[in-house]
Amino acid sequence: MKLLKWLLAILVVAWAGQYLLAMVAPNLIMEGVYFGGAKQGGYNQLVVRPVPDETARSVVRPSPDLLYASCLYNLEDGPIVIEAPIPERYWSMQFYQMNTDNFAGITNQRADSKRVGSVAKVTLISADDDPANYQGEVIQSPTDRGIMLLRASAIGDRTQQQAALDASYCGPQGTPAPAH
Amino acid sequence: MLKSILKLCAATLAAILLAAMLLARNINVGVEEMSVHNGDWITTVSAGAADADPLLKTTVAFSALLASTRENSMYYRLAAVDGEPLRLECRYRIEGRDYDANWWSITAYGWDNYLIPNAEKRYSFNNENVIRRGDGSWVITVAAREQPGNWLPVGPSGAPPWRKLGDYDFDLLMRLYTPGDAYLDAPQSAPLPTVTLEACE
Q1: Measured between CB atoms, does A52 come within 8 Å of chain B?
Q2: Which CATH number fits domain A40-172: 2.60.40, 2.40.128, 2.160.20, 3.30.1300?
Q3: Cβ separation of A14 and B16 shorter than 8 Å?
Q4: What's the pTM?
């Protein structure tokens, strides 16, 4: 009888526990990617990655038809600024918080195709900050840490796309960004 | 007292292990329920979205971390043809045309979710590099051995075999960037390439 009670307790705890695990697993995996990436490139700076091949292990299912650049951001010391020339072919700037949610993004597609040829200048601020204190394009991150990912099409002639990523910038506000 | 503590530790450990096993099982079942089927292709319409279910978020974290939202790009995955998991000893034919999207690509991934090592260093075909027939249609052959035309090579995954959990050797992922309304409104019936099994060794 005692054994049956123990088994029942284990089953009940395990049943509830799977949902707890499901809630923390995305954060744990993102933490792994975040700290792994930080070891290679640090925080609040843009890392332009080579076109993925069979050796790429920073994220699962990398696309060999995309150019990637990422910025692991940390807003504890204040906002960061992201500047990125927007090339002609497919390009996007996506923001992910630590539970994997894609909470904001900019593209050069659909209605935003008019942005091609311009430079996206984004101030990324924390949830505690007031967007009214900033000018221009302001994005508020739900968490102090997260990942900004630039994607650009690598199909066909990728010269312009690669140049756009190479000229992009991510860093603390107040630090001079390179001239575009 | 010590006996009770040991019992409690063992029970906790058993509960955690069981919870992990239940989660792994429910990820597969849950994702299946949340997925949209279009022939043998499967897509999850909430990948990357804030309203995604916790089970889907966990699955995405394991298999499609940092995915875009579907307005930006849609992902259709194919791991079986007519219910039979994709095998390295078989040859598959993908036949298609162009699709209503800014651009598209089809990539082969190993069961470990990474690009498959191959001497050709070819991991995908896209709307620009695929060789077309006169009418604009195309055929891609997926096989471990060299094939004429658009050959998408597959082979053993880079990860050690003991880590393999699924029943397929590799899978195919079709990406549609800036997909048209047909994909956004009716992902279950929008046009996609057909994949057929040609032969097995």
Answers
A1: yes
A2: 2.60.40
A3: yes
A4: 0.84
Counting one residue from chain A and one from chain B, the pairs whose CB atoms sit within 8 A come to: 163
Burial (CB count <10 Å: 0-12, 13-18, 19+), residue B140: buried
What does the domain layout of chain B look like in residue ranges?
A: 2-200
Assess contact for B75 and B173: CB atoms under 8 A: yes
Spans of all domains in chain A: 40-172
Q: Which helix (H) or strand (E) holds B8?
A: helix B2-34
d(CA A28, CA A25): 5
Q: What is the ipTM of this complex?
A: 0.82
All residues of chain A having their beta carbon less than 8 Å from the beta carbon of residue B28 are none
The per-residue pLDDT for range B112-154, each reduced to its tens digit, is: 999 999 999 999 999 999 999 999 999 999 999 999 999 999 9
Asked if B60 and A100 come within 8 Å (Cβ–Cβ), the reply is: yes
- Any chain B CB within 8 A of the CB of A21? yes
Is CATH 2.60.120.600 the right assignment for the domain spanning B2-200? yes
Contacts of B15 in chain A (CB under 8 A): 9-10, 13-14, 17
